[in-house]
Design goal:
heterotrimer; A mainly alpha; B alpha/beta; C mainly alpha; A: mainly alpha; 68% helix; 5% strand; globular; C: mainly alpha; two-stranded antiparallel ribbon; two-stranded antiparallel sheet; 12 helices; 4% strand
Chain lengths: 371, 258, 305
């Protein structure tokens, strides 16, 4: 792929540079996340550590969202259903029978058992993927906007059912007693895993085919691409990571409430993806970083800021307000988001812009020729 | 699965045929195509002409699966493909371009071709190689990595053709590739089209209004007016055919340049 | 037995009317702009909150709500028309040519904005307000007791629908709106002023939201900053079920959803009844799958190859 590389001997070093260059985006993003975690860990501040863990869990969620929305261009709204399914599944598998007996009335295989944490997490992530595969088969045949609405209908159905399914979810009340083990490092590990999987997916022919359907579905069909099949693949992979985000959330807070998987988090995750730039992995990560930072700042101001002896306090709801305004501003003035569809640039030469899945050569602007 | 279904011993051989029998297409009382039959062979450049609104694009849509005929059958290599979905036909060797070009705008030029190659079942690496080969053959390598939406109009159309060719088709259907091109660009186009059958071992169906291009490259021409066939023959026969002349002189089309 | 059926029927039609009016508000804007205005429910909510004095206190004090009925109605309608027009100008006009999904997300953001604005000013505690409490009194029609409010809701709805039909068929601007719904660019080429048509659509939408706000508050007697959400969700369902892009579809969808909701409530066994919302969404899913364009298909939305 690189012109310069063809002149140099094909040594191990050259090949290693090529590999690093290929994986540059997820490598840089992972190192960035690692740096943040290391700094916070070294500082010993527990409160910030929790904030970072929360942000990393959101990273897994938004990357999951990106895998589907970024590549397919279908703005699905119902993705939080998968987080909901994953989270409660984690509770069903890992809570001790003793704690389960207080709030839930599960079938004996779940009520009397407590399964190991890691396998439970995986299965709890696969469950929403399975649901996605099933509902996805009919839904992915629909046109863009109808598919968006249909995914929302799925979320609404799960939300309503889980809110009333007292014996399995404790209904509208908070379910407590879930084992807590997710700290910054575990969240980081999953975030890094999500980054690499998302990146590899977008480099494969499946990612490429799906992006073509985003650009022009008619031409994509003529080019031999089965739109529903490609969308389904991304939908299922994306559901897995959103399920994992739910699992991580459950094992981070130690508690779950169905109401936490509804419009608020739907809006927040979409805002993060759109503000960062929905067409690239870097956009997803940048979006989480920027929005989390802003939300955190606003939260501090909401809690009260001392300026020269006077405390400024903002009423509750200001964070969301600020976020809503920011989102509208970005949608109007920079709809491609902060990253605008670009990945992390390769700093060592070449006038190339790195796009999701490939690159383009940047040329100087010239006057349009002829027509 | 679709690939093996359409793979046959006749694919890309001189025996390969694309045929449409007694095709009719009705839209809520309007008959767009009325009992049209065409048959084209491997390595043939087959022209489809007619005044505006005659039904040419509708016919191409029927051949490529975007439109179900109200009546009639489409056969590829002897196999009935009527009503098959566009992506299955694409995989099976029927490629097409669009009047509106429809490039994948956000993707680089080479990926536009890669996608089509991937659509026929290649892995990404082979698809990339095939894409670059075709761009080289079309003298378009230097812009391979430019983003598709930065291209001027004439070059866009070239990429559209390249994309269809990247599918290693048995038959490629070009829908008005010369529209809006200058004379010099038309010459380039004619040169490309005439080299396609040998290079890709396929047949070419060419819809065009530009008579210079049609008469210049086609082996046979089929003329449609108001959805009905009015003539078929070699360029010389068609040019001399009184029905054809009447259809064109009597129609609103001013784009025929003889 | 017959009594229950008729009472349920009136319930269903009354609820259906509210959904129909809300769906119509959404459908009008979708028609001219391909925008599904998620914030419509929050327009309704703002209209309701305009009735009380802005304050975070627990007990709500009537502000506009204390004025004589005709002035009250006109004021609330004016407030929402202004809000709708302002939203169009600030948030949606710059996005006129964007993808429908982007427009939807923007309306989502606007919805969030309005909800949190109200939350900040009025606090999150639901407040009880007595608006025209005498309307809940039932009237006796033969043997059947029907709350006056249901009758008013249904008549107002029918009246508004009739007016709207007249408006769209007989007035110049109404005809222009219909043309713009079919093909916006073509309409512009023919001399229709895009900005004006869209502004009118938003204004009417604001009016419809105001009417729904008043009827809804009269019925439930409570205000909450999230009260718009179930309304817009169900109206959403109604628009999709009825066929996006079709106004008659929106109205039809509204009644279908209202009736379905009451029917599910009435026939489902008690323990499933809480999930009736889920059934309604299940219905939308089913309809989307079987007939993606909705009950009344609109040609203008189909893509040409």
């Amino acid at each position: 792929m690189s012109d310069a590389a063809m002149d140099r001997p094909d040594t191990a070093a050259v090949r290693m540079v090529a590999v690093i260059r290929f994986f540059w985006t997820p490598i840089v993003l992972s190192l960035f996340a690692l740096a943040v975690v290391v700094i916070v860990w070294a500082s010993g501040d527990g409160v910030i550590a929790r904030t970072i863990t929360d942000a990393l869990i959101r990273t897994v969620l938004v990357i999951g969202l990106y895998i589907f929305i970024g590549n397919s261009g279908v703005l699905a709204f119902g993705h939080i259903a998968f987080m909901l399914i994953g989270g409660y599944a984690a509770a069903w598998f890992t809570m001790s029978p003793f704690k389960k007996s207080f709030a839930l009335d599960l079938p004996p295989i779940l009520a009397n058992n407590e399964f190991p944490l890691f396998p439970s997490a995986i299965v709890a992530g696969l469950l929403p993927a399975l649901v996605a595969a099933i509902v996805g088969i009919p839904i992915m045949r629909l046109s863009g906007i109808a598919a968006s609405i249909a995914t929302f209908a799925v979320l609404a159905i799960f939300y309503t059912v889980y809110s009333n399914w007292d014996s399995w979810t404790f209904g509208a009340s908070t379910l407590v007693g879930i084992p807590i083990y997710v700290n910054m490092w575990i969240a980081l590990a999953w975030a890094v895993f999500a980054m690499f999987v998302a990146y590899i997916y977008q480099q494969t022919k499946f990612g490429l085919a799906l992006r073509a359907t985003r650009e022009d579905p008619v031409a994509a069909r003529a080019a031999g691409i089965n739109i529903s099949a490609q969308r389904l693949i991304a939908f299922v992979v994306s559901a897995f990571f959103m399920g994992i985000a739910g699992v991580l959330q459950a094992h981070f807070l130690g508690s779950l409430i169905v109401n936490g998987f509804w419009l608020g988090i739907t809006f927040l995750s979409l805002a993060m993806l759109i503000i960062g730039g929905q067409r690239s992995l870097t956009g997803a990560v940048v979006g989480v970083t920027v929005v989390s930072t802003i939300v955190e700042l606003l939260r501090q101001v909401e809690a009260g800021v001392e300026v020269g002896g006077i405390t400024f306090e903002l009423p509750g709801g200001f964070q969301e307000l600020g976020l809503a305004v920011l989102m509208i501003v970005i949608l109007i003035y920079r709809p491609a988001g902060i990253m605008g569809g670009l990945e992390v640039p390769w700093p060592f030469g070449g006038n190339r812009r790195v796009l999701a899945g490939g690159f383009t050569i940047v040329r100087a602007e010239r006057a349009p020729a002829g027509e | 699965m679709a690939q093996t279904a359409l793979q046959s011993s006749v694919a890309n051989t001189p025996d390969d045929k694309l045929e449409a029998f007694d095709i009719s297409v009705d839209f809520e009382g309007l008959t767009a195509i009325d009992n049209v039959t065409i048959a084209m062979k491997n390595k043939e450049i087959f022209g489809l002409i007619g005044p505006n609104g005659a039904g040419k694009t509708t016919l191409v849509n029927v051949l490529t699966g975007f439109q179900k005929p109200t009546q009639g059958r489409v056969m590829l290599g002897g196999k009935d493909i009527t009503g098959w979905a566009p992506h299955k036909l694409g995989r099976g060797g029927l490629a097409r371009t669009f009047q509106a070009v429809r490039l994948f705008r956000d993707l680089p030029v080479v990926e536009n071709l890669e996608v089509a190659a991937v659509g026929t079942g290649l892995g990404r690496r082979e698809a990339s190689k095939r894409a670059l080969d075709i761009l080289k053959w079309m003298d378009f390598e230097e812009k391979a990595f430019d983003q598709a939406d930065t291209l001027p109009y004439g070059e866009e159309r070239r990429v559209g053709i390249g994309r269809a060719l990247a599918m290693s088709p048995r038959f490629v259907l070009l829908d008005e590739p010369a529209a809006g091109l200058s004379d010099a660009e038309c010459d380039d186009l004619m040169s490309v089209i005439s080299r396609v059958p040998d290079r890709f071992e396929c047949g070419v169906l060419l819809i065009e209004h530009n008579m210079r291009v049609i008469m210049g490259v086609c082996h046979r021409i089929h003329v449609i007016d108001s959805g009905k066939t009015i003539a078929e023959g070699t360029p010389d026969e068609i040019q001399a055919n009184p029905e054809v002349i009447r259809a064109y002189l009597g129609s609103k089309s001013e784009e025929s340049r003889a | 037995m017959l009594q229950t059926i008729i009472q349920n029927a009136v319930d269903a039609i009354s609820l259906g009317s509210l959904f129909a009016l809300t769906a119509l508000g959404i459908g009008l804007i979708f028609g001219v702009m391909r925008l599904i205005n998620f914030a419509h429910g929050d327009f309704i909510m703002v209209g309701a909150y305009a009735l009380i004095v802005p304050s975070a206190a627990d007990a709500a004090m009537m502000f506009i709500g204390a004025w004589p009925a005709p002035i009250l109605v006109i004021s609330i309608i004016s407030v929402l028309i202004v809000l709708a027009l302002a939203s169009e100008r600030v948030a949606f006009r710059p996005l006129r040519t964007a993808d429908p999904s982007i427009l939807l997300i923007t309306s989502f953001a606007l919805s969030f904005f309005l909800q949190n604005l109200v939350l900040m000013v009025y606090s999150g505690r639901p407040k009880g307000i007595p608006l025209w409490p005498n309307l809940i009194q039932p009237v006796l029609v033969g043997d059947i007791r029907i709350p006056q409010l249901h009758i008013i809701t249904i008549s107002v709805t029918l009246g508004l629908l009739a007016l709207l039909v007249l408006f769209l068929k007989r007035t110049a601007i109404g005809i222009q709106m219909r043309a713009a719904s079919e093909d916006f660019q073509m309409a512009q080429l023919l001399g229709v002023r895009g900005n004006r048509v869209i502004a009118v659509a938003f204004a009417i939408s604001g009016l419809l939201a105001a009417v729904v706000a008043l009827l809804f508050v009269a019925q439930t007697g409570t205000l909450s900053y999230k009260m718009g959400v179930p309304l817009v969700l169900f109206a959403f369902v109604a628009t999709v079920v009825g066929g996006m892009g079709s106004l008659s579809g929106a109205v039809l969808g509204g009644f279908v959803v209202g009736i379905a909701s009451v029917v599910f409530q009435a026939i489902l066994p008690a323990d499933m009844r809480l999930n009736d919302d889920a059934w309604v969404f299940g219905l939308i899913l089913l309809i989307l799958l079987v007939r993606p364009t909705g009950l009344v298909a609109v040609k203008a939305l189909q893509e040409r190859v």
